[in-house]
Amino acid sequence: MPSNKRARQRAGRAARVAELQAAQRRRRRNTRTIPVVVVVVAVVVTLILVTGLGSSGSSKKKVATSPTTAKAAATTTAPAGGAATTPCPKFDGSSPKTLTFAHPPAYCLTAGKTYTETLHMNVGNVTVQFDTTKTPKTANNFIFLSLYHYYDGTNLFRTDTSIGIIQGGSPHTESASDPGPGYTIADEGSGYKYAAGDLVMARTSAPNSAGAQFFFCVNSACSNLDSQGTYVVFAHVTSGLPVLQQILASNVNNNSGLGGAPAKTTTIESTTVTSS
After folding, report:
1. Is the same domain home to 165 and 237?
2. Residues 149 and 61 in one domain
3. How many Cβ atoms are within 10 Å of 184's Cβ, its own excluded?
4. What is the pLDDT along the chain (276 residues), one digit of tens a residue?
5. What pTM, to 2 d.p., does this model score?
6. What does each C-alpha distance from 106 to 83, 150, 160 come to in angstroms?
7. Domain count along the chain
8. Is 147 helix (H, G, I), strand (E, B) or coil?
9. Does residue 154 sit in the same domain as residue 257?
């Protein structure tokens, strides 16, 4: 029978062996757990990254599309950069007579149509056809004013034989100093040449200053304006040129400094606009 000392030694060895075995089992469990943790961490990190990239991509997309949307909206805005415009008059001539407008005209013409206008005057009629290809906005402005009866009852107040013109379009003062319709329109080009039968917008020496005043070129003397070339030609006489020639031939000096005026008061009684 072993002594107590040897029994204690055997018990100590057995305890150490048991402790070593327990440590080995813990190491084996840790070895199996670490890969699982690594995988879980990797999955979590990946999800975070994917989520973050998705959010970032969406944000970038919004930033990119915002200017595109704004730009598209800007290109489809109404004329004059979205400025307010006066509604189109009725083409049947039933709109009220209007001499002052708070805003420039809306664009009222239909693409592909031909527009003509007859000025019914106390000395005879003159008919013009508009150039809606080269000068659509200027043509639109004249038709707009005519359909609001702006020119009805106005006089052709100026004749100037030195440049072969007859001028009108001043309902407020019947003079070149007329304040106009309350707005001006943009010039449509420059470098114009002038010939008999042209209907032209009058303006000051400043760009984009035309409003309602106009003049007819009656004969070849109108080419004296070629060196300026800034007055926009927007229509041409198709009938009634002899009427204009008679008006210009009646010129008398009225000391206005603008050449003169017709000997007989010459009035645009009404206008008629047609399209085809």
Report:
1. yes
2. no
3. 18
4. 445 555 565 655 655 656 656 556 665 555 444 444 343 334 333 333 333 333 333 333 332 221 221 222 222 223 445 689 999 999 999 999 999 999 999 999 999 999 999 999 999 999 999 999 999 999 999 999 999 999 999 999 999 999 999 999 999 999 999 999 999 999 999 999 999 999 999 999 999 999 999 999 999 999 999 999 999 999 999 999 999 999 999 999 998 889 999 999 999 999 999 999
5. 0.71
6. 10, 16, 33
7. 2
8. helix
9. yes
